[in-house]
Amino acid sequence: MTTTTTDTDTSRSFWTGRSGLIVPALLVALGAFLVYGTITMDVPSTATSPGPQVFPAIVAGGCFVVALLVTIQLLVKPDAVDRGVDDDGKPHTGTVSNWRTLSITVGSVAVFIALLDPLGWVLAGAILFWGVSVGLGGRRYVFDAAIALLVSSAIQIAFSAGLGLTLPGGVLAQIF
Q1: What average pLDDT does the chain have?
Q2: Cα-to-chain-centroid distance, residue 18
Q3: Which of 59, 75, 78, 127 has CA atoms 20 to 30 A from the CA of 114?
């Protein structure tokens, strides 16, 4: 039995398998934007501790940490995508994109933006979380919807009780 191997690694550039570095770049940009917004924030003298600058600072720090970890992961072990070979034995080239995941996730965000005011945070947030779950491959629809409702409710409580901020109530505020 004879096997033929083709050495395609010699023709690979540094960027092959590292296209995901765009995500850490976007996270660093978001973190920098949050740091700038936090530093330039007008904090009223009546603000109590921990204050309105704490949460954006935590999120900015999280953005920087995740960006660093993803960068290290992609530099140490680039993504290897096996696209297979055609009938002649030549490897397939081109990009590999998951358009289903992208469209469901972006659609969920668009639906969330459109429904936030009429439905309120709890219901619109649950739709957002459920849609992202489905987009990322969740197949337990009822369970995922229940978890999404639980998470959006917990966020509503955390913002209301913990931070003293009100998120849009929507239809639930009118009922209750």
Answers
A1: 85
A2: 18
A3: 59
The number of C-alpha atoms within 13 Å of 50 and in the hemisphere containing its C-beta is 9
C-alpha 97/C-alpha 117 separation (Å) is 33
Sign for the pseudo-dihedral over CA of 47, 53, 59, 65: negative
Q: What is the 3-state secondary structure (H, E, C) of 112-123?
A: HHHHHHHHCHHH
pTM for the model stands at: 0.58
d(CA 154, CA 115) in angstroms, rounded, equals 19
pLDDT in tens, 7-38: 444 556 776 667 778 889 999 999 999 999 99
Rounded-to-integer distance, Cα 83 and Cα 151, Å: 37
**d(C-alpha 87, C-alpha 101), whole Å:** 29
Task: Note the pLDDT tens digit of each residue in 68-84.
Answer: 999 999 888 877 666 77
Q: Letter for the amino acid at 130?
A: W
